[in-house]
């Protein structure tokens, strides 16, 4: 859902990017103020912001259009979330993660890549109770099933099944959470 420009949104962008995104983390003495300001701004800029969420210091999300953050979920310090990204409930996204739903077109060798435009948006869907470790990258169109874990530094290029533990570049299954059940297609 693309939102129309308004003076109120401009104010919230300015508050977020010029002040709130630079405020201390929640664990510091003034962290409550920073977290409250980030939540206040993101509630209007995101398509959806659940209850008891945390958008940590330095998170970049562009305009916020297309971003949905579920209840009790958090986005770690200096992470980047761009495009259509749906994040479920109880999700932990570690510091410096990159989640994008679009990429550049680069197929025509006769033209510079920067003049070929962007590929169509492919939404990224993250289920409930997911943990993305430090520095994880999720590429366009990826679906992460409920209860999955992506190890630090993993680059996810394909869907991850519910309950799987994946890691590496590109990310591959390295384990399974005990008691996890697989979800039916459609997340």
TrEMBL record:
Gene3D superfamilies in alphabetical order: Hexapeptide repeat proteins (2.160.10.10)
Domain of life: Bacteria
Coiled-coil residue spans: none
InterPro entries in the record: Hexapep, Hexapeptide_acetyltransf, Trimer_LpxA-like_sf
Alphabetical list of Pfam families matching this protein: Hexapep, Hexapep_2
PANTHER family associated with the record: SIALIC ACID SYNTHASE-RELATED (PTHR23416)
Protein name: Acetyltransferase
């Amino acid at each position: 859902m693309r939102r129309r420009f308004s003076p109120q949104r401009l104010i919230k962008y300015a508050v977020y990017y010029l002040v709130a995104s630079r405020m201390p983390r929640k664990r510091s003495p003034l962290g409550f103020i920073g977290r409250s300001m980030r939540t206040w701004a993101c509630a209007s800029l995101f398509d959806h912001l659940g209850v008891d969420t945390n958008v940590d210091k330095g998170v970049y999300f562009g305009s916020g259009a297309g971003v949905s953050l579920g209840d009790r979920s958090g986005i770690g310090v200096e992470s980047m979330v761009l495009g259509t990204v749906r994040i479920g409930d109880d999700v932990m996204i570690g510091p410096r993660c990159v989640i994008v739903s679009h990429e550049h077109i680069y197929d025509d060798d006769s033209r510079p890549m920067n003049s070929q435009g962007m590929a169509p948006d492919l939404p990224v869907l993250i289920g409930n109770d997911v943990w993305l470790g430090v520095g994880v990258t999720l590429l366009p169109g990826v679906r992460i099933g409920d209860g999955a874990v992506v190890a630090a530094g993993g680059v996810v290029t394909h869907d991850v099944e519910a309950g799987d533990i994946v890691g590496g570049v590109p990310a591959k299954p390295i384990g399974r959470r005990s008691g996890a059940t697989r979800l039916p297609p459609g997340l």
